[in-house]
Amino acid sequence: MRIAELSRRTGVPIPTIKYYLREGLVPAGERTGPNQAQYGEAHVRRIRLARALVEVGGLSIASAREALTLMFSGGLSELDTLGKAQYAMTPAREPVGEHERDEAWDDAVAEVDELVAKRGWQVKENNPARRTLAEALATLRRLGQDDYFALLDSYAEAADRLAAEEVEAVARRGDLDSVVEAVVVWTAVGDAVLASLRRLAQEAASTRLLGDA
């Protein structure tokens, strides 16, 4: 199919498809002329995945490219592949500079380590989510939101239960390619689902608790 048909099939504008092609989110089509190419069903699926990761999941182009590359490459063990796919969902950050290290940061790092140990989570030191969580906790400390920390165990308990159910569900798919795709899509798009559900639940709880105030 030509790019116009590809756009019609996916619902993605032609300029966006060309952008995905330039950025390596979608492989090039088969050249049929100087400015023409043919695309297949694999391109349809790849574009839909790219759009889901970027527009719904909120991933950067670099993170989406890394995740898509992992989804369509092999050579790693199942555990390593899943780990790399999951890590790709969290943007890489520069090392914390000395000017960023304060008491709030040191406390946050210690709290993350303590939480991981308390939950018995086997989590690598280089998991980027550790850094992201520490930054969030340090920010809460600096803003004086100390009472938030009383909820941290509840968040961890809910995350633990949900993660176990997610891993069991994707593992039932059987083949590695399908499992990796689920890890990438469920993590990226699932974050949007979780955030939306939380906001809906917050409104419901506010109405229930404060509606008659």
Verbal overview:
The chain has nine helices and two strands, in the order ααββααααααα. It has 213 residues and is mainly α. It has a domain at 57-91 and 149-210. The protein has a two-stranded antiparallel sheet with strand order 1-2. α5 crosses α9 (176-210).
Count of strand segments: 2
Order of strands across the biggest sheet? 1-2
Give Rg in angstroms.
21 Å
What is the averaged pLDDT score? 86
Distance between the termini: 61 Å
**Helix and strand run:** HHEEHHHHHHH
Structure class: mainly alpha
Largest sheet: 2 strands, antiparallel
Quote the beta fraction: under 5%
Shape: elongated
Number of helices: 9
State the low-pLDDT regions, or none.
none
Tell me roughly what share of residues is in helical segments.
55-70%
For the structure shown, list the relevant keywords.
about 210 residues, mainly alpha, two-stranded antiparallel sheet, 9 helices, about 5% strand, DNA-binding
Task: Summarize the topology.
Layout: H1 3-10, H2 14-23, E1 30-33, E2 36-38, H3 41-56, H4 61-71, H5 78-88, H6 103-119, H7 128-142, H8 152-171, H9 176-210
Antiparallel strand pairs: 1-2
Helix pairs in contact: 3-4, 3-9, 4-5, 4-9, 5-9, 6-7, 8-9
Kindly summarize this structure in a few lines.
This protein has 213 residues and is mostly helical. Helix content is 67%, strand content 3%.
